[in-house]
């Protein structure tokens, strides 16, 4: 009897699941996009359990305008597929509950440095940063230093001075105890995703510890030169030169 109840319960659950699946709407979408101009993505809904009252598009949290729409069909045109327009596009149909599908627009990583040129002082620490805002996100980051125009990989913990921290949109290379001889030069950050790879360069310039004193030393040198000139002038004045104050005093 107990076994029969268990079988009946399982059967009821399976029927309920099948009914829920059959009652759900089906949405067919255009294929994912990887390149092109004036590309049209679209969605078509069918087998809805409730009437479709309308539809719209969203990219992330931003609502977009539909280019062509009927109750069961909608499309959106992407002027140019690049890092700015890449992402997940959602077509949403106003049913109960809402019905949604996603069209993916994918490109290779578009990498940009936070600063193209970074300046640091000898002995200090510095952070080199690169970002990637294209879709899909970066799955791997790699740093290189250009040595004689050949990229040499920089691993995390190299010389116990180079430390790398990365996520899917950003990578940081922290260099401690900057070396005036070894560290200046070009560094390259490289990002990889399923569509390919992209990279950017950061030029690191390292100043000597004395660099900050040079303006002060220049001022001191100018003052010393001026004092020396005045001193020499006073020493070489002719004996018969009498200050104006003394002349008026004699009268």
From TrEMBL:
Domain Ig-like, residue spans: 25-91, 109-205
Keywords in alphabetical order: Cell membrane, Disulfide bond, Endoplasmic reticulum, Glycoprotein, Immunoglobulin domain, Membrane, Receptor, Signal, Transmembrane, Transmembrane helix
Residues annotated as transmembrane: 212-233
GO molecular function, one term: cell-cell adhesion mediator activity
Coiled coil stretches, renumbered: none
Chief place where the protein resides: membrane
Signal peptide as annotated in the record: 1-22
Subcellular location: Basolateral cell membrane; Endoplasmic reticulum membrane
Its membrane topology: Single-pass type I membrane protein
Cellular component per GO, a single term: basolateral plasma membrane
One Pfam family of this chain: ig
Any one biological process term the GO annotation gives: dendrite self-avoidance
Protein's UniProt name: Basigin
Organism encoding this protein: Ophiophagus hannah (King cobra)
